[in-house]
Design a protein that fits this description.
Blueprint: H1 2-9, H2 13-16, H3 18-21, H4 23-62, H5 67-93, H6 98-126, H7 144-151, H8 157-185, H9 187-207, H10 211-225, H11 228-239, H12 245-274, H13 279-295
Helix pairs in contact: 4-5, 4-12, 5-12, 6-8, 6-11, 7-8, 8-9, 8-10, 9-10, 9-13
Protein name: Major facilitator superfamily (MFS) profile domain-containing protein
Family: Belongs to the major facilitator superfamily.
Transmembrane segments: 12-33, 45-63, 104-125, 131-150, 157-178, 211-232, 244-266, 278-297
Length: 307
């Protein structure tokens, strides 16, 4: 999708990166409004509101308006994501076997991530339709990995798009399978191992100058990164009393959304300055920082899955 947006609107890396940055405003708004809306509407009402903001965002994109309006539509998507993250993670995090259930919840998101680049790439490269046709089907954005495979690894357009599908397939499988491993070795140790493995896969993706090695590496990276968000939600519910779950999870989800907006935007700025090869050291540094922060997380009481 990124190459198609750049071509359609005739914009550079920094400008197209605004579609990553603009959801930040939506996520911040969700963090501010989450508690009030949850009390006023309840979880069902909040679910309807989340779906409505996503639908409105997709309708705007279908109309392929001027690029500034596209940026605004992604703000609405960020608002819907932030509100839904808080509502459903808080609810499922309080259920029995929350690790596995959160894994399945976020695996459903991963299924959408698998389908979206597959559909988008087929629409653009095989059916020769315009990028906004994709929004008749599903809303997602493959990210910078397609740009890297296309321009650095010199992959064919369709095969490069499949790289994003492989990444999301890895995420989905990781969210389904790894929570069962996590329960055997504990949450703290498991996430430490997963992040280290993701860093190893990132090194292969960066240093192995082969298209197919890069495809495999990015899939493995998705596999080990996959359970990070649901496991973080599980850690929050393990460490905090129930009456704080909705508020804190809403804040954590909004903070995560801010990172998901700011970091790809930063990659776009680096790509404009140094080319898209700046992606790899940036990802490796981000994973290393995540591991360092995780190691400083406190332990829960003994007997808890996080211990």
């Amino acid at each position: 999708m990124l190459p198609s947006l750049q071509s359609f609107y005739d914009i550079n890396y920094i400008t197209v990166s605004l579609v990553f940055f603009s959801p930040l405003i939506g996520y911040i708004s969700s963090g501010i409004l989450n508690t009030r809306l949850h009390k006023a509407l309840g979880q069902r009402g909040l679910g309807v509101l989340c779906g409505g903001t996503h639908m409105l965002s997709a309708i705007i994109n279908v109309l392929h308006p001027p690029f500034p309006v596209i940026v605004v539509s992604f703000m609405l998507g960020g608002l819907g994501n932030g509100l839904s993250d808080a509502a459903w993670n808080a609810w499922i995090g309080n259920l029995d076997q929350s690790n596995e259930l959160l894994g399945f919840l976020h695996a459903a998101y991963g299924v959408g991530g698998i389908a979206s680049p597959l559909i988008a790439t087929a629409i653009i490269t095989r059916a020769a339709l315009t990028w906004y046709t994709f929004y008749y089907f599903v809303v997602s954005l493959g990210g910078w990995v397609v740009e890297f495979l296309l321009h650095v690894r010199k992959g064919e357009a369709f095969a490069s798009g499949m790289g994003a599908t492989g990444y999301w397939l890895g995420i989905t499988l990781g969210r389904i399978l790894l929570p069962f491993v996590t329960n055997l070795i504990g949450l703290k140790m498991a996430v430490t191992v997963y992040l280290a493995a993701a860093m190893a896969a990132e090194l292969v993706f960066w240093l192995a100058p082969n298209f197919y090695a890069s495809i495999v590496a990015v899939g493995l990276q998705g596999f080990f990164i996959g359970p990070m968000f649901p496991h973080a939600m599980s850690a929050v519910t393990s460490l905090l009393p129930p009456h704080l779950h909705v508020v804190v999870i809403g804040f954590v989800a909004a903070l995560g959304g801010c990172g998901a907006s700011l970091l790809p935007f930063a990659v776009g700025m680096l790509a404009q300055r140094f080319s898209v090869t700046a992606l790899q050291p940036f990802i490796l540094a981000s994973l290393g920082l995540s591991l360092a922060i995780w190691l400083f997380m406190p332990h829960a009481k003994k007997g808890n899955a996080f211990f």
